[in-house]
Amino acid sequence: MEVDAEGPVLRMGSGYALRFEDDSDFEEAFLERAKNDLGETPERRAEGLEELRRLIREEKNLYLPTDESTELYLLAYLRVCKFFPESAFKRVKNLYKLRQKNPKYCNDLLPSLERNVFAQNILTVLPNRDQYGRRILLTEIGQRWKVKNCSLVEIFRGIELVMEAAILEPRTQISGTVLLVDFVGLSINQVWQFTPNFAKMVLDWIQYSMPARLKEVHIINQPYIFNMVFGMFKPFMQEKLRNRMFLHGYDNSSLLEHLDAKCLPTKYGGLMDIETNQGIDLWNLLCYYEGNYQVSNEFGYKKKK
């Protein structure tokens, strides 16, 4: 990780670079997508922000500033709910209630505290967006996951940290995210780490709480025992998410039917000549924004006196 004139950047391979973008000057394609997919106009944006701020201010025991400092954060909720303020507010409440109920997964979410999971090279944010402008998160929880070195709790916390950075990117708010999960080498010992309670919590976060548009989930290189893991998640999965899940097995050509080769590493049949072993570099990139995480960690429901 280095800092240049445009801010922090992670160099990946020859000619590839990852930045978490914070500019709101969109290319025409993103402007059209915001208007056509989300119904976003300057008027609806202003009206939605005003109403969402009002609802937040009136919610007892919820601390979430509604000044300009949180405007981009509130827009994430409005965009995922297509500018219906009541739906966005419900998602706000769901997130902070989920965090309140699950402190070991959600409290003190700071990059500085989560170095270990990134050191395992389990998590990679791919430098190129896909053909629809979506941000891609790669999670390798087969061969690279050593249970004795890293817990499932740490993996989920790492994913939360990455998603929290991604949801503040205006282009990601508009176009959404894609989750690519590589299960190559999945073992029975790893399967035993999953529980129905964990599956429900994760899906409550994805489906009802997270202010991000999860557009697709691609499962690759999954062995037969993956069905045991999937069986725990399936009862809690809404039809909308089921329709966005694709199981490819060991067939890269199947994956390439959905994601352009330009946005995938060569090991998945793509054209990007990069290694997915820069976890510590990604961790350093997230640590650059530690102050932002410290501020957002204060948001949420406060205990009644």
UniProtKB/TrEMBL annotation:
A single GO cellular-component term on record: membrane
CDD domains associated with the record: SEC14
Residue ranges constituting the CRAL-TRIO domain according to the UniProt record: 110-276
InterPro entries: CRAL-TRIO_dom (IPR001251), CRAL-TRIO_dom_sf (IPR036865), CRAL/TRIO_N_dom_sf (IPR036273)
TM helices/strands, residue ranges: none
Record-linked SUPFAM superfamilies: CRAL/TRIO domain (SSF52087), CRAL/TRIO N-terminal domain (SSF46938)
One Gene Ontology MF term: phosphatidylinositol bisphosphate binding
Pfam families: CRAL_TRIO
Name the UniProt record assigns to this protein: Alpha-tocopherol transfer protein-like
Species annotation: Sipha flava (yellow sugarcane aphid)
Gene: TTPAL_1
